[in-house]
Amino acid sequence: MSDSGSGSGTDPDRLPSIARRVLAPFADRSVAERLVISLAAILLSITVGFVIVLVSGRVAECSTAAWTMPVTGMGFCYDPVEVYVILFNGALGYPFAVGEPGLLNPNWSPFNLSFGLTLSETTLLIFTGLSVAVAFRAGLFNIGTQGQLVVGALATALTVIAAAPLLPEGPVAGAVLILVGTAAGAVGGGVWGAIPGALKAYADANEVITTIMLNFVAANVAYVLVLEVFRAEGSSVVATRYVPEHAQIRPWLFSASSDFALVALAAGVACIAGLYYLLEHTPFGYDLRTSGVQAAAAEYGGVNAKLTTVRAMTLSGAIGGIGGSVWVLMSEGRWMASVPDLGFDGITVSILAGNNPIGVLPAAFLFGLLKGGALEIGFQTDVPTELVGVLRGLIILFVAMPEFFRMVGRFVGIGSGGTDGVASTSSEANEAATEGGETDA
Asked: Contact, 250 vs 107, CB < 8 A?
């Protein structure tokens, strides 16, 4: 087995010895390796984005330059430093005092509107990211989380509206309605997810195609139902009536306009822990993971692969449906036709997380941070929203390709496959065995 570093003519002393001693222990450990890779990916994407903002600012027209390049004196219409400061600092509500003597803003509070919006996105993406991750772990590519979210959201809104008159107003009734509405969303999403699961298991239908098509079916059926039957009287948009206020998830410490509730985030974290336990420490999780790695071998070992496929898609759809419930009960207060693309964003979150439930939390927060920061840039600068989308896409793109950074690590002679090819290869094999042969993000 050849050493990749020496095989490619790499000089093992390419990095200074001090840097090697600092970085190598981190790069050789899988969890720390991912953290280092993620940090390197973000820094590199910022560098590339910095150049793109500069070039865009050079070709744009403006009366006054927003940023002047040192030494050359060349002016640019967009200030890349300001863009990134607003992107990250603004998404958190400006905790850092830029340009002031102190590092931290003394007036910053974690319960500000901007941070609330970021956490709202994070909370919703936790559920959709988990939905996609469950299917991935079972070897299924669920593109239909968006449709399951739509169905779950509509089931929640209609159930709560129908059940509310049966209970007296009050916090107890509100808690009951929230639980009943969430259960309805889980059932609605689960049933919608079970359809492509059953088609895959018993008719050999490609789940990618069926889930994509079911997204359109869900969106249009829900739209027609609300338009013709459940539309709120006098509403100028296609939407149901609002669920009672006492049945909505309260924001508490955050502003109501942030559409965020700490209880919902806590439920999302609990869902992460529960799903992780289910996948890693239960017979069902074992069946699901082994089916995802090698369905034929799993069936040979006694796993009912068809039934597991249906169960996995049902569970995936149920979690997506709960995401729709949270969207209705926490953010909108009703079902609206303009459902955001949370299901599709969940695919990105799951890939960033390596399909690991634990990784969904930081991945969803990163995605929420970028979306919240993009809103701040739109409010406070003249930078086009399309350019902000490019910067966001760059960060996600670089974070999602860890193998590139592993190659860089091997090239400079550190990390897996660097100085000890045999050891590193063995480590990768063990990791693959542990992770079920999946490629992490």
From this structure: no
